[in-house]
Design a protein that fits this description.
By secondary structure, the protein is an alpha+beta fold. The chain has six helices and four strands. Strands 1-2 form a two-stranded antiparallel sheet. Strands 3-4 form a two-stranded antiparallel ribbon.
């Protein structure tokens, strides 16, 4: 279950900061009676509603893009102070996720760098075919943004 409460930051030996997800919503069982299977199956809705992808709330087949959607939803909330979809009840949140595209992050956080907004917005595309297809692709997008933002301002003049 990817949500802010389950993401912990750890400083590595070399001083870098690493994020770790400490709670997993998809787990395996190896019960002789049940066989080895995934507990979160297609058609099953488990997890925290705010960070679920449209296909997840619709009970469709899930793949890595649902997890990348959840990561993008967490980043969206970090920058805007609110989840991508909100409502008074879980049903209302599900209805919005299933039917409404997420507003661009810069709509709610105009100070967000455009390059970072593009990475997050791509991760939150309503149609999963338009999202990041692999975690390494999204990570490279974020790495590229981090490198650009880390450059001193004087470098812009070169």
């Amino acid at each position: 279950d990817i949500k802010p409460e389950n993401i912990m930051l750890e400083r590595t030996v070399d001083g870098a900061v690493m994020a770790k997800v400490l709670d997993f919503g998809v787990s395996k069982t190896n019960n002789a009676e049940l066989g080895s299977r995934t507990l979160t199956q297609d058609g099953t809705v488990l997890g925290t509603p705010y960070y679920m992808s449209p296909e997840h709330v619709r009970g469709k087949e899930l793949d890595v893009r649902a997890d990348l959607y959840a990561v993008s939803a967490v980043l969206f909330e970090c920058l805007t102070g609110q989840p991508p979809h909100d409502g008074p009840t879980t049903s209302a949140v599900f209805a919005k996720i299933a039917s409404e595209p997420v507003v661009p992050v810069r709509t709610l956080a105009p100070g967000c760098p455009e390059a970072l907004a593009q990475v997050i917005d791509k991760g939150l595309c309503f149609d999963r075919k338009d999202r990041w297809h692999h975690p390494l692709m999204m990570a490279e997008g974020l790495r590229s943004v981090a490198l650009r933002l880390a450059l001193p301002r004087e470098a812009d003049a070169w």
